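quick one
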Amino acid sequence: MNKMPFDKYRAFTPISLPDRQWPNRAVTTAPIWCSVDLRDGNQALIEPMSPDAKRRMFELLLEMGFKEIEVGFPAASQTDFDFLRLLIDEKLIPDDVTIQVLTQSREHLIRRTFEAIKGARKAIVHLYNSTSELQRRVVFGADREAVTGIAVTGTKLIRDLADQMTGTEVVFQYSPESFTGTELDYAVEITEAVMAAWGPTPEKRMIVNLPATVEMATPNIYADQIEWFCRHIKDRRNIIVSIHPHNDRGTGVAAAELALMAGGERIEGTLFGNGERTGNVDVVTMAMNLMTQGVDPELRLSDINRIIEVSQECTQIPVHPRHPYAGSLVFTAFSGSHQDAIKKGLSALRQSGANFWEVPYLPVDPADLGRSYEAVIRINSQSGKGGIAYLLEQEFGLILPRALQVEFAQVVQRRADASGKELSAAEIWKHFEEEFLKADHPVSLISHKFEHHGENEDGVMTATVENGVSRHTVKGRGNGPIDAFIDGLKAIGIKVQLVDYHEHAVGRGANAKAVAYVEITGRDGTLSGVGMDEDIVAASLKAVISAINRRERR
Ligand SMILES: CC(=O)SCCNC(=O)CCNC(=O)[C@H](O)C(C)(C)COP(=O)(O)OP(=O)(O)OC[C@H]1O[C@@H](n2cnc3c(N)ncnc32)[C@H](O)[C@@H]1OP(=O)(O)O
Ligand SMILES: CC(C)C(=O)C(=O)O
Ligand SMILES: [Mg+2]
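structure w/ 3-methyl-2-oxobutanoic acid:
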């Protein structure tokens, strides 16, 4: 067998931090969220968002409760510049929301960025330059000192322009881009040089954003890098440490969570993880992960379908059906044992009245995201009795006794196996009707009358039935209508016994019906039957007939 060319790659060198503290910490409050959908997300799209799409995305982010939003790279394109001007000139930025703009450390780009933010109440100016050993060598052809010079020169220019600006509060953010590939001592060195040029204080902190521009190692290593940085940087209290993970190894969320444990206070990410290559960290998943630990996520996700819809329209990128919390299939169970446990869990929760969520296989209440329970259980050939019974109860109000659940599950299984497809609720109902409610021949009930005179006496059932050949009127005795009916049927050669009986009402008011379930035993085993009628006695007799006819069909 040809081996994969694994020896082309080198393992990431672990960080030496034997007394690391982050594994003992937990995240107990939401971070400061900063959406970078309109910048990092947008720059990674096949077709960047139109002005109209940007505006819809911006409004969605506001609705969700983001207080910091990177709205673009205004010096890079006229579209981004114009969008920023639109937000400012049309006064579309709420007072409690701060916009953020990205720029490279190049004079003409920084000056243009300041033109773009004129008139904003407050803006975060985000300066970045790449600092990794690889990028210094191959992209910039510069040593550490020269790269530090790029960052410091840009910072000083931003300081001057911010000082000259009136009416706009400028918050400064610096990113040593490609931080995960940067030697930690150098990341600290360049950031301290930038801090010295900016002059943050505990009252006026600057943001230091430590991006996993490329996710290069396991999440614990990113956490080590963040803790190392936080422990070594001078004047830690003068900065807000921001985390900006990408998802190259598919562990962006895990890396972000561990990085928060390691000292991060702010997260830059996007909805559903859109962004360069495999994406930015997904803030929806992160926020929901917090919520399921009992922590206020400080983002509103209660109408997840709308968030998905707007996001998909703006980015033209579909949300995967199995995307955590949001995918169309994540609140759906197809397999029998999962369905059974969910059904039991939901009913136990209803009965206990507990005010915390606890349902097997459902880590979150779909209703909290505006999803409904109806989609929870779907039926195919992997499904079992529990799920089918749940669906019949939710959709049609039928509460099937256990024996009937078992029998009907076999029917459904056969149908699903034959079609190889999922069965809709309507199809399940059709099969239920065919199997039980329409099992009204060869034996059928034409009329019946039950008379019961004193409490200690048997009642008498007079019923007219057809047996497929001729019509008969039979009389039988028993302590209830079903017993008496079964007794009467002996006269035309139908010899069965009642094993179990259940009934309940379906629907309300004028549309209410009675449904009866029986289990009868006869010459060749036990079978269930179901009857529905406005009248409970008629429903019970129909249920007996249904069981008899099912036996005949066999
Ligand atoms: C990790 C990230 O997501 S970073 C953000 C990336 N986003 C984007 O790049 C989207 C917007 N960018 C653009 O549209 C363009 O890059 C522009 C308009 C900003 C600049 O365009 P140009 O000047 O034509 O080209 P380009 O971006 O290729 O510039 C590369 C030059 O800038 C230098 N450079 C790159 N980044 C930086 C930086 N952060 N600070 C200073 N110089 C930088 C490069 O070394 C290179 O220099 P060279 O021309 O001497 O080789
Ligand atoms: C601009 C920076 C922060 C970035 O997007 C990255 O490094 O991924
Ligand atoms: Mg990025």
